[in-house]
């Protein structure tokens, strides 16, 4: 009996050591992926002026082609594209939560992250696991390395890589709807490669990134309205007159149906309903 127990303990010890070694190896691979991604922050792929002239969108479309994501793939992701100055992240989170409550498998791409970069890429409300992040990151990285000799931009910069990675993840995880948060502006943001979004949204407008987007609310609204697409319904919260006028112009230019979402308080269920996060972290 004593010998049998010792044998069981020995086997358990060997299995546990093997498990720890496997976990350590997986942690190393994940950390290598994150380190490689972080190094892309030093990659000055394009100047700000080139990005604002549309070159960034050309590069982004090339990246997607290199990792085998077609326009049809993007359309099948059923993308909801959201921009704005204040509240776009919260709007995305609300949309994601509402869809999941109705049984929809969602992909949610947002920025920035708080603790780990995996937080930017969520499937069904949860950041993808370290294993999935590692797997998909190296798949995308290897595909880009295989094709780099055919393109001027060999390796993308940080945000471009993350955007390509997110769309790759959502394609291979077979999500039913994707909530895509714009990084900066809209018209020339690298997320603006969606041919036919399900709909677009504009949260509250204000003066942000004025060195890139312009010094007036009208100029900034022009950038934000750049995500509107023909045939896709666009929604905006009530905006100051200057911004609203430009958003309507942008919608008319591409044939988008722009609707103004009434304030929450105008709905019977919305009266007195608190939104957002409670706590000292709220500013």
Automatic annotation (TrEMBL):
Keywords: ATP-binding, Ligase, Nucleotide-binding. One of its GO terms (cellular component) is mitochondrion. This is Uncharacterized protein. The lineage of its organism: Eukaryota, Metazoa, Chordata, Tunicata, Ascidiacea. It comes from Ciona savignyi. Gene3D superfamilies: Mur-like, catalytic domain. Belongs to the folylpolyglutamate synthase family. One of its GO terms (molecular function) is ATP binding.
